[in-house]
Specification:
mainly alpha
């Protein structure tokens, strides 16, 4: 036996990947198209001041969602990857993850709500408006506590069609609600509520679908809880830092810039947000399979570089399109934003680097590897301090350049850490897996 994989096996793998990518890709094109149309709808129907407040509220929603997770989702995926064929044990993993998230949720709301209200008041919102916007975040935040965890059984069992149907349903209903609401009530709280209600509805349907592969009537498992908490000890500091650094452009402009700049960045990031289709495809198709790979260094490193090369090609293509054809892209946003060619390119570059950095980190965490928060945070904070000292934070383009350099440092750190842990395995096994 030569140990070589038969040719027909390669063909079957190619056909399988082709099917999965086509199903996921077509569905995600529809999801992203609906998301982009919904985003453009919000940009065009909300006045500039209201859209700036909407950007602040959405940024805070993303922040509190990440804080409430703090690595629990990744820990649940890693734990679920070990028992994914046993519905009972997988159910224990999911329930344990949900209980942990619920405990984090209250704390994050208590900390973040006063900050959001202060920023909204700082940019011209009344007290009543600020309180209304803060309350309108709750439905979407509540749904976020469990929706990504209900996706874990479907991802591990590669039931891609069910995932895509749920996402298409959520985006279709969101678009319909946004259109019918904002035409009569062009306010931030109305847009936030429309997104939150549809997310809750989709979450209920997602839970029912997950029951095909997992038993959610199980109780919390103490060992799974310990395993996830062990990972949280390393991921929480990085998560807290990520919440500030990943949205550093919005935070800096909200403090040092003006309301119009917030609206501009929010609008441009809507366009760059199309890249999220790549994150969804990787998290659906690649990362769960990566979590299931054996502890063989040669295989892990090979798959890692394949993923990295693909991400690089996608990023170069996206930046090239924006560089060559900025006018058609900006036309989508409307006349209020048609002069932002340079900021658009900078936002796209930053988005591509953040995309690569995030997926590289997910690949590591899917193996149960979390970079030391002391190393990661200290290096990034030192970089930011140096950049802030030399950069004029009142200038939009300067803040965007800061975000690019900051994201690049994170990408280098995550790549280096993954390779370090992989070579540690290599020294233990003394082989590349052949």
């Amino acid at each position: 036996m030569s140990g070589k994989i038969p040719v027909h096996t390669y063909y079957s793998r190619l056909l399988e990947w082709g099917r999965l990518i086509s199903v996921t890709g077509l569905a995600q094109l529809l999801v992203q198209a609906l998301g982009l149309i919904s985003g453009i709808l919000v940009i065009r129907l909300l006045p500039t001041k209201e859209y700036a407040l909407y950007t602040l509220a959405n940024t805070m929603l993303a922040t509190v969602t990440v804080l409430a997770d703090s690595g629990i989702g990744a820990g649940t995926l890693a734990a679920g990857g070990k028992v994914w064929q046993d519905p009972g044990k997988l159910g224990q993993v999911i329930i344990t993850g949900i209980h942990l998230r619920q405990k984090f949720a209250l704390l994050t709301l208590l900390v973040s709500t006063p900050i959001l209200i202060y920023l909204l008041l700082h940019h011209g919102a009344s007290w009543l408006m600020a309180l209304g916007i803060a309350v309108s975040m709750i439905p979407a935040f509540y749904a976020a506590l469990s929706d990504t965890l209900f996706e874990v059984p479907l991802k591990l069992n590669q039931d891609i069609t069910a995932l895509q149907k749920n996402q298409v349903f959520a985006n279709c209903t969101r678009f319909i609600l946004l259109l019918s609401t904002l035409l009569f009530f062009p306010f931030t709280f109305a847009a936030m509520l429309a997104g939150g209600v549809t997310r809750l509805w989709a979450n209920i349907k997602l839970k029912k679908t997950a029951l095909k592969f997992t038993d959610l009537s199980q109780k919390e498992d103490s060992q799974v809880r310990k395993d996830i908490q062990q990972m949280l000890k390393r991921t929480i500091p990085s998560t807290i830092y990520y919440c500030t650094s990943s949205q550093i452009t919005i935070w800096l402009i909200s403090i040092f810039g003006n309301t119009e700049s917030i609206a501009q960045v929010g609008a441009l990031e809507r366009i760059a947000g199309v890249l999220s289709i790549v994150t969804v495809m990787f998290s659906t198709l690649v990362i769960p399979r990566f979590a299931r790979l054996p502890e063989i260094p040669g295989i892990l490193i090979g798959r890692f570089f394949q993923a990295l090369l693909l991400l690089l090609l996608i990023s170069v293509t996206a930046c090239g399109i924006v560089y060559l054809f900025p006018e058609p892209v900006l036309y989508i946003l409307g006349k209020k934003y048609e002069h932002l060619e340079v900021p658009l390119l900078l936002v796209t570059i930053s988005g591509c680097i953040v995309l690569m950095s995030g997926i590289v980190n997910y690949l590591s965490v899917a193996r149960g590897w979390a970079i030391s928060p002391v190393l990661h945070i200290s290096v990034n904070i030192l970089t930011q301090i140096l950049l802030i000292y030399f950069i004029d934070l009142s200038e939009l383009t300067q803040v965007l350049i800061l975000s690019i350099i900051n994201a690049l440092v994170g990408l280098i750190l995550y790549c280096g850490y993954f390779l370090y842990r992989s070579f540690q395995l290599k020294s233990v096994y003394g082989t590349t897996g052949e």
